[in-house]
Amino acid sequence: MKINMNFDILLLLLPLLFQALIVYSSTPTDILSQGSSLSVKRATTNVLVSQNGIFSAGFIPVGENAFSFAVWFTISSDPTIVWMANRDQPVNGRDSKISLTKTGNLVLLDAGRVTIWSTGTSNMSAVKLQLEDTGNLVLRTTNLGKSFTLWESFKFPTNTLLPKQTLTVDTKLVSSKSQTNYSSGYYELFWDDDNVLRLHFYGLDPQISSVYWPPPWQGPFENGRTTYNNSKTAALSSTGVFSSSDDLSFLATDYGVELHRRLTLDSDGNLRLYSFDMNTRTWIVTWQALPEPCKIHGTCGPNSFCSYDHRFDRRCSCLPGFKMKKYPNWFYGCEPEVKWNNSKETDGFVRIANAEFYGYDRDYFPNQTLNKCEEICLSFPECKGFQFKYEDSIYKCFPKARLLNGLRMSGFEGDIYIRVPKANISVYHEKPIVKEIELNCHPKQVILMRAYKKPHENATLKVLVCVSIGLAGVEFVCVIVVMCFLQLSRNRNDSKMHGYMLAATRFREFTYNELRKATRGFREIGSGAGGTVFKGVLSDGRVAEIKRLREAHQGEAEFLAEVRTIWRLNHMNLIEMWGYCIEGKHRLLVYEYMKHGSLADNLRSNALDWEKRFSIALGTSKGLAYLHEECLEWVMHCDVKPQNILLDSDYQAKVADFGLSKLQKRGESHSSSFSRIRGTRGYMAPDWVYNLPITSKVDVYSYGIVALELVTGRKPTSVQIVIDGGGTTEHGRLVTWVREKMNGASTTEAWMEEIADPILEGKFDRAKMELLVKVALQCVEEDKKTRPAMRQVVEMIQCHDECSI
Ligand SMILES: *[C@@H]1O[C@H](CO)[C@@H](O)[C@H](O)[C@H]1NC(C)=O
Ligand SMILES: *[C@@H]1O[C@H](CO)[C@@H](O)[C@H](O)[C@H]1NC(C)=O
Ligand SMILES: *[C@@H]1O[C@H](CO)[C@@H](O)[C@H](O)[C@H]1NC(C)=O
Ligand SMILES: *[C@@H]1O[C@H](CO)[C@@H](O)[C@H](O)[C@H]1NC(C)=O
Ligand SMILES: *[C@@H]1O[C@H](CO)[C@@H](O)[C@H](O)[C@H]1NC(C)=O
Ligand SMILES: *[C@@H]1O[C@H](CO)[C@@H](O)[C@H](O)[C@H]1NC(C)=O
Ligand SMILES: *[C@@H]1O[C@H](CO)[C@@H](O)[C@H](O)[C@H]1NC(C)=O
Ligand SMILES: *[C@@H]1O[C@H](CO)[C@@H](O)[C@H](O)[C@H]1NC(C)=O
């Protein structure tokens, strides 16, 4: 009966209640006064809202019947939590509340009236709690007309730093456990004892915690930091400039514009700067600390390694002989499949190429043979394996006591040898990589996009959409982007560099006059693509290739962005850029000079014997693989051809003319950004003609043609074929010709003799040529899905002694 009565009263009161709610929610307040509280029961309406409507403070659900008191960013499509009072101890969803007591203490009480959290203030009158426009939750008292801050959330950050908030000596950012679990995770951004701001992984086992940013194998000064300033402060501005007392400073890619921004230590251990896009109501990454996600420690746990591929994001794999410990949590890593007793006699090694395990070296032995290194490792019972690396013209041996922070990438020089029982070696050799499991992509909401404000123009904000957003209905493809990862150098020269400071000492801006002098009035014209190329001698005596870009209409900010993109790409098989010039309409790029010119120049002379050709094929594939996979920007070249492959004094291939192509979204995106077909007839993949999504596979195709040209010495003259619907496709005559010769010949020997460049006069390595032709033919498959990725091409060509395809 009693229940019914109450219910009736409730029904009567309902309209009133609703009215009250509406009144309440239509006039949200930013202030909680002394003696009042916010209750979890009315979590949706019982909130403080900052006067500008950007931030809210209140209870937010973090699990089943679990709530945390938090400040969040209200206007994003999903609320973005920027601060939490009780991230590790959520409260019950029934009777919990946060109260500002009569004594001035802000107290979070759980259902059972247990204090979960408080500000610890007391004996204060005239106290109020205010959520400010900056997102700072401030407890203030007014005394004799003056207001004093008793407590503020900005002094106790969780995983996010907002503009106007300072990261001080006693504060740190701690990542969340995962994207859905806000409790304290495994990574922190903290002030180290030597006054340097660092990222630290402190995982499950305190013994395996380690610093991973800035790169720990370099000293603070090599990383552009200083240890001399002990003030330990760092702050982010709303225009996108971050600077800290250890001389770290960086700019957002859209720096210069006043935006909502946040610096967050994400649960994957990467520190990212985000800016808020009002149109899509999403956050966009505009800087991140680690472009190569596998370099974040702890990602895959012990006894495993991380590999990275633009198609699959990060992936973890257990080492041979190990299995995953706690599916699906990779932080626990892998454990041995079988327990065995270490012994000199029964143990052997399995090799994993292009891999590295950071730290935990038992010792270091320079100038060792592989056998000697194996012996050394076997002699330590705790040796789990060793790193064997060729460096400074000797082989170095690093026996490892633990196998942590493993990473594997093509182009990494060095192998790791894992200690396993001899009895099982043959099994592991056949299938060395046990399992590759994708990690969750992170972060999901990011759209690849960048915005620039031209530094010298007011008000005009030019938004450059580099990449088409995925087609509707296509499943969310995760994108991780960092563009223009730029650390400011300590010897800054603001006016000169247009606000962009460049760290590399060799990289600089040239004046137009300097370059005119260097090229003696732009006279010596060479060959090149994308613009006119001149040879010049710089004032310091270096011989440079200077490219004057044709598209002079490009704005200053866009030009500088492209320049930074190219400059960041650093690989022995990519041409090195030394600087640029931007003056008025002039846009010039200064590159290292390649003594032997382009592959195109060399192919038709007697200069290239078979060894050189093979090494050019390998070098080119490595350069392209680097562009495709290891750099965050996923640069597609889009114009791979012999004219763009330059040869240094040792005939080592260096890919040129990259980076001026647009950045491409990872995964299969339909490319409305490629409105104009780019490339060179004969080397162009059919994908362009069929209007297929443009992926890095277009470069694979072009590479295949170049490889065939290297073998045959023939140009890929093409014929046009009309296809259904009236379009035309180019079907490489060279490809058809090679295939016909292969199919028509009775022996491998026979077709090789037929297709080999007559200039070689039959002097070539049969096995290598067969391999290269087979790989090249895979590359030029019509169906791009059957073409290998560039990384696989490298692996296939590289393993000519060991593997078969
Ligand atoms: C978050 O992770 C912690 C620690 O693993 C766990 O105790 C807690 O239940 C998790 N919370 C949610 C909401 O899953
Ligand atoms: C609070 O005030 C009481 C009475 O005035 C006093 O005894 C107590 O020491 C004060 N506490 C603090 C922390 O100031
Ligand atoms: C230390 O860093 C702070 C904050 O960046 C700066 O204001 C101060 O001038 C620096 N001190 C010295 C001695 O460089
Ligand atoms: C490993 O060593 C222990 C003690 O020495 C012995 O009891 C055990 O049988 C050994 N196991 C194997 C597989 O050899
Ligand atoms: C490496 O060892 C070999 C043989 O022990 C020796 O001849 C050679 O000089 C050593 N090289 C270096 C760089 O120490
Ligand atoms: C490794 O060898 C041991 C002993 O021969 C055997 O019991 C075990 O099944 C092998 N493990 C694998 C993965 O082959
Ligand atoms: C730039 O500023 C000047 C002076 O403040 C103003 O006259 C002009 O209209 C502004 N230009 C733009 C594009 O807003
Ligand atoms: C900055 O640039 C000016 C010329 O614009 C030059 O005179 C000066 O030496 C430069 N300063 C530094 C620190 O490079």
From TrEMBL:
Name of the molecule in the record: Receptor-like serine/threonine-protein kinase
- Can you cite an annotated GO cellular component? membrane
Q: Where is the signal peptide?
A: 1-25
Q: Does the keyword Transmembrane apply?
A: yes
Please tell me which top-level EC class this enzyme sits in.
transferase
Stated family:
Belongs to the protein kinase superfamily. Ser/Thr protein kinase family.
MF terms from GO for this chain are:
ATP binding; protein serine/threonine kinase activity
Q: Which UniProt keywords apply?
A: ATP-binding, Disulfide bond, EGF-like domain, Glycoprotein, Kinase, Membrane, Nucleotide-binding, Receptor, Serine/threonine-protein kinase, Signal, Transferase, Transmembrane, Transmembrane helix
Q: State its location(s).
A: Membrane
Organism superkingdom? Eukaryota
* Membrane topology annotation: Single-pass type I membrane protein
**GO BP terms in the entry:** recognition of pollen
Q: Where is the Bulb-type lectin domain?
A: 29-152
Query: Where does the Protein kinase domain lie?
Result: 519-803
Any transmembrane segments, and where?
none
Q: What is its EC number?
A: 2.7.11.1
Catalyses:
L-seryl-[protein] + ATP = O-phospho-L-seryl-[protein] + ADP + H(+); L-threonyl-[protein] + ATP = O-phospho-L-threonyl-[protein] + ADP + H(+)
This chain's source organism reads: Ficus carica (Common fig)
Write one Pfam family the protein is assigned to: B_lectin
The family database entries (InterPro entries) matched by this protein are listed as:
Bulb-type_lectin_dom, Bulb-type_lectin_dom_sf, Kinase-like_dom_sf, Pan_app, Prot_kinase_dom, S_locus_glycoprot_dom, Ser/Thr_kinase_AS, SRK-like_kinase
Q: Determine if Transmembrane helix is one of this entry's keywords.
A: yes
